[in-house]
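Why Type I-D CRISPR-associated protein Cas10d/Csc3? Reviewers of the renewal asked for a concrete example.
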Amino acid sequence: AKYLEKHSGIENVRETCQQVIEYINSLISPIISQYKLPDGWNDLRLWVKQVVMLPGNQTTQTANNFLNELANYNAAKKSGRGKQLICSISHSAYTVTEQMESAVLFTPQVYTNKQMLNGSNAKRNISSIAGLEMMLRQILMNQTQAVGKRFEDGKYRYLYFYPTYYFTPETNRFLQKAYTGIAQTRFDTSIRNHFISKELQANFDKDKYQNVDAFLIDENIDLQKDRTFKLSYPDDQPLTFYFMAMPPGRDSSDTESWVMPTWLAFAFPMILDVKTVVSESPIPPFNDGAEFEESVFIDSAPHAFRTLVGRDRFRLDYILQGWNENNKSYPAPLNVLTAAYAIHLDVNAKSGKSGYDANWGRFTELAKDFETTPLHVFSYLNRWVRSQGIETARLEKIKLYAYHFYPCFDPYVEYDFESKEWKLMKESHLNHPKKITDLYRKFYRANKRYNPKSNAVLKPIDIAAETILKAETSVFNGETLVAAVAAEVFKLMDRVHANTADGRWIMSKREEERQAILDFARYFVIEVFEKSFAGDRARLAGRQLNLIKDTCEFLYRLEDDRENEHRDRNQGDSITKNTTKNDDEEH
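Here is what the prediction returned.
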C-alpha cells in the first residue's frame, strides 16, 4: 500500500507485487535457513507410517501409541497449567485445536462427553487427522446432491474390476477407458427394454449382454454429472485392479443399494473380460485377480440376492449356464437377476406426484417368494393383471412370463420354440400344474374360446378343492376321496351337457368322459393333495392352491391359443382348397 501511495497510477499490481514478494523472500531466506520450521504435515506423515503397511516394513509398536494416548487423556483432565486438549472424535495423539463452526459437517457443535464438566467452553476440540478426514468428507459431499443426514446415511457399494489371465497393456488401456466411462447407476426401463422387445420377446443370450455396454458406458461422459466415484489412474501405468463406488438411489435401503452393483458384477465379465467383486467395504478384498479363482464374488450381499443367485462365488461358465451341486441344478444367476428385475419393474414400480418410483423396497418380498417356488412367476403376472384392472393379460405377455421368465428360475424346465413343447424333468415345479391342466382340458373347456373369465377356466379345480375341504376326514380318504371328487366334477359336466352351467364339453361319449374325470380326480387327490401337500387341508385352502390355480390358468390360455391358431390355420387351408376346387370345376 505504501508503494502504491508513492507510485500511483499502476492498474495491474500482480507483476509489481510478485517482485516485492521475491525481494522480501530474498531478505528473510538467510534467517529462515537457521531454523527448522514445521510445514504442518508431520501428523499426516506419522499417520501414514503407522497405518500403511508395505512389504519389508517393520510393524509399528502399538504399545507406544497406547501410552501416548493415555498420557494425553490424563493431561486433559487437569485444570489450569499443563492441561492437554483432547480430540472429541478420537484419542489419537496428534496435534489438537479448537474446532471452528465452519468445519463442522452437519449440526454445529455436536455434544461431546470429552469436555470438562461444569466448564464454560462448549467448543469441541479436534485433532489434525480427524479434521483432515472431515475436510475430505466435505469435498465428497459437495460432489453429491445429498446433504446432512441423507449424505451420512448413503449406502455406497463398491465394485472392483480385476484383469483376467489374458490381460495385456493394450487391453489395460481399453479397460481404463471403459472404466472411466461407466455412468449408469440404475437398473431402469432402458436396460429392461434392451432385453425385452416391444413385441414382448425376451432375449437373454450372451450377445445381448455383451451389447448392453451401450447403456452402461458413455464415451463422452460429463464428469460434472457422473454420480459414480472413481479413482484417477495414470494412463501409462497398468494396474492390478480398478474400483468404483456406486451411489445409493432414491430409497437408501440396503436392498436398493445392491440392485445395480450385483447385476453389474455378473454382466461385466461378459462385457470387459474381467473378474468382479461387489462389496460394502471400500478396502479392496484382493490385491489382484490371481488371489481368487472364480470370476464373480458377491461379498455379504443381503439375503434377497443370495437366495436368488444361490451362492457367493461364481465361475465364468456359471453366469449364463448355471451349475450342478449335490445332485441339484441351479439356474444361471445373471438371467435370474435380469428376469427378477424385469418382473419387479412390471408389478411393483409406481408413478406418483414425485414421478416414477421403481419401489425397490418391495424386491425383498419378491425374492422370498421366488425362493419358495418359481411358480410365483405366474402369481406375479396375475398380480399385474389385477393392478391393471383387466380380465386377463395379452397372450404376448403370458408367453413372456411363461416361455422366457419362468425357465430363468426353474433349471429343470425348457420351452422349445421350434416344436412349441415344454421339456419338463421330474424335479420341475411346473409338473403338477401342467398335468392338472392337461387332464381337465380333456373333458372341460370354458364357454368362450377367446379370453374367457378366470372362474370359468378354473372351475374343475375349484370344485375338486372345495370337495376335499368339505369332506369328512374320518370317512373320505384315498380312493373314497377320489370318488367323491370325481362325482362332484361329473355333476358339473352333467349341467354343462344340459346347458344349465357355463362351460363346453369335449367328449360326446359319457363313458370316456367319466374315465377322464376319474383320472383328473385321482391325480389331484393322490399326487397333489396327499403327496405334494401331505394331506394338509390348510395348504389346500391357502397360497399353495392359489399358486397352482394361477399357473393352471395361464397354461390353459396358452393351450387355448395353440388350438385356436391351429383351428384358424385349418379353416384357412380348407377355404383355399374349396376355392381352388371350384375354380377347377368352372374351367
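DSSP finds 24 helices and 16 strands in the chain. This is the kind of structural detail the renewal will allow us to pursue systematically.
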